[in-house]
Amino acid sequence: MMDSPVWLDGHSLTLEEWEQVVFHRRPVQLAPTAITAMERSRRLVDGAVARGDVIYGITTGFGKFSDTVIDREQSEELQHNLIKSHACGVGEPLSEEIVRGMMVLRANALARGYSGIRPSTVNALILLLNDGIHPVIPSQGSLGASGDLAPLAHMILPLIGEGEVSYRGQRMGARTVLDQRGHAPITLAAKEGLALINGTQMMASICALAIRKAENLLISADIISAMTMEALGGIPDALHPLLHQARGQMGQLQVAAHMRALLHGSHCLTRPGEKRVQDAYSLRCIPQVHGASRDAYEHVEAIVIRELNAVTDNPLLFTDENLILSGGNFHGQPLALAADYLGIAMAEIANISERRSERLLNPQLSGLPPFLTQKGGLHSGYMILQYVAAALVSENKGLAHPASVDSIPSSANQEDHVSMGSIAARKLLRILDNVTRVLAIEWITAAQGLEFSDRQMGAGTVPAYRLIRKHIPPLVNDRPGQPDIEQAAQLIESGQLVKAAAVS
Q1: Key word Cytoplasm present in the record (predicted)?
Q2: What is the pLDDT of residues 34-55, one digit of tens each?
Q3: What domains, with CATH codes, occur in the chain?
Q4: CB within 8 Å of 85: residues ≥ 6 apart
Q5: What is the pLDDT of residue 48?
Q6: Catalytic residue among 56, 114, 167, 382
Q7: 382 noted as active-site residue
């Protein structure tokens, strides 16, 4: 299956196919229907140029220069100048996965046949993708409207023989690699430079990566919190289906059901009044808090999936109606709001997780040895792991401030409202990294808390406990905590925890 191509038609790309291209190097190819649609819209562009029609980005300059008419003899120079002048991003390069995601998403958007670009030009981009030639794209510099102009310009530079690429782990000049691989630079025709960089594909690629990370973290949070409930002798009444049916929130219902399945058969839980009458909110309200974040995830996932097959450049060409229309599909507001929303939702997963870690480590709250060590005083145990979790949670609070509430006008106030969606998307990834490590800390402390019990654990918590113990031994004597945190984080990020603790 991985050797068969993903056929791009601009309508049917799935998130699973996107992942296969990004992570497993599955090849892509333009569908025959896409080629036909692209050729039709290209004829519309050629006709407009031949007639000398005044159309934005085809026979005019860009942004504030939209009122400047360009001679048709200069159309190729116009497009090449656009790419070169807009390639001014700064910051660390985007990851190879994000770049691959951008490349396939841009090719898919152009395959819809609304952009007036030649199939041969899109195939040149696909050739680089399939050959593992990845443009070096700085991560900063996009306002998220007129799309991700600077990052996408860097993505296109290698097509015209300029810029840098990463190839087989080496960063080098694009022209050098093109020559080595026998690929000739292309010449952009009228409209093509604009079609290639006017879009939301950096935001969309980051968000697509983020929702997959978030889904894994949401499931992991349920598993880890179930272990914490066992270590603290939690009260399962708070998971009773009648409680959650009475409210009717879907995410809450799903989390409560998942927690019941994870804890099925556990003898570590207690009845009301046995240890306490009610648990603290960080235990009792797991379904409500995790469930709300799950609902936010579902909402964001739907937006991102729609964006995988969205046409986001300008102007667009509608061949059936013989119309060329200027609009604003490049505006990143849908993704900006979605990224901010998911960032807030996932920050809350870390917030409540850190409170559970504190509860495990604090003897006044846990009934367990202070900081989960039998040699308190001489040893500090896991005392400082809670400090680290608190620091990451605090950092997330700053990162979760919405980027989309800001807008700075650009292009001499022609582009007077922008989304800042690329900033929202990049912040989201940083939040998810922090959430992963906060959950890793809770997993470590929950497993250590369970060392002080010999009771039977639940159907889903037993394999989760065995997995961490396969890689991280119980804490007997003090040792550096950073390797343990990173090991647990890797087990979470790789999906091994979710796979190990899967319950029906």
Answers
A1: yes
A2: 999 999 999 998 888 888 777 7
A3: 6-199 (1.10.275.10), 206-500 (1.20.200.10)
A4: none
A5: 84
A6: 56
A7: no
